[in-house]
Amino acid sequence: MLRDKRCGGSPFPAATIGRLDCTQDGLGHEPAYAQRMGNIVAAGTVIIAVGDEILSGHTLDTNSHLLARLAFAAGRPVRRIEVVSDDLDAIVAAIRRAAGEPEVRRVAVCGGIGPTPDDRTFAAVAEALDRTLELSSEAFEHIALLTHRMFEAGWIERDEVSDANRRCAMIPAGATVLPNRRGMAPPLAIDVGDDRWVFVLPGIPREFSAIVEEELMPRYFSGGRPVTIAEVRYRAVPEAEMYEPMRTLEREFPDVAAGSYPQMERGELVIRLRGYNAPRVDAAATRLRELRSDT
Asked: Which candidate, 57, 70, 56, 123, places its Cα nearest to that of 95?
C-alpha cells in the first residue's frame, strides 16, 4: 500500500536523514542523503555532538536523533551529524567545517558547557567564530537564582555562585542566552549573519529536549522548506530485488531521493521517497509501483 506523509515544513561562508534512527553518516564525509538530494537540500542543519562519553559508547546520543527528526519536519533537514571529543581543537575544527558549507544555515553544538575543566565548548565556539568570551549578566543571574534555591533546599552549604559555576556564564560575545528552565548551563543562539545561526546546547537530554522543542523550533527553525515523503511498502520482497527499480527511479526522478528500509520484525520492506515537489514525489511512488507492483 502507498502511504503519503507531508512534513512541515562564518560568518558562514568555515546527516544524514536517510534513516531517521541513524546518528552519523561518516565523520568528515558528505552524507549520502545530501548527495542524492543534490540541490534539493537547502537551508540545512549540521549537528555537532561533543563528548568523549559518546565516542566511548558509554552514552547513547539521543539528542541528535531528536533534533534531526524535528529539523527534518521543520524543513531544515540535517546534512551531517558529527561526533567529536572533548577537545578544543576538535570542536573548533568541526564548527569551521560546518561554517564552510554554503547550504548550512543552522549549526547546533551539543554538550560540553558545564562547570568542569573538560567542558570546553564555549571557548571552542568563541575561537571558531573569532569572538572573545565575556561574562553574561543574564546567564550569571540565572545561575545565582538556582544556586540560591539549592542553598534553601539544603543541597549546598553556601549561598554563592562558585568559581566553577561562574565559568558557565562566560560565553562568546554577542550570543543570545536562551531560557533553560530545567538546568543551570545557558544555551545560546549566535547570529552569524544572512539568516545563519550557531546554537550551543547542553548535553543533558532533559534540558536539551525542552530547549529544542520550546525555543529552537518555534523561534529559529520556522520558515523552512517542507519535505514531502511517500512510502511504498512491500511484503516478502527481498531488498536486493529492488535494486533495478530504484536505479530506474534515480534516472527518471533525479529530484526525488529514494531509500530502502527493511522492517524485519514486520516482514516488510519500506521504500521511502523524499522531495520538495509533492507531485513529483507522488509520481515517483506511482512509477515505483509500476516497476514492482507486488505491494
From this structure: 123
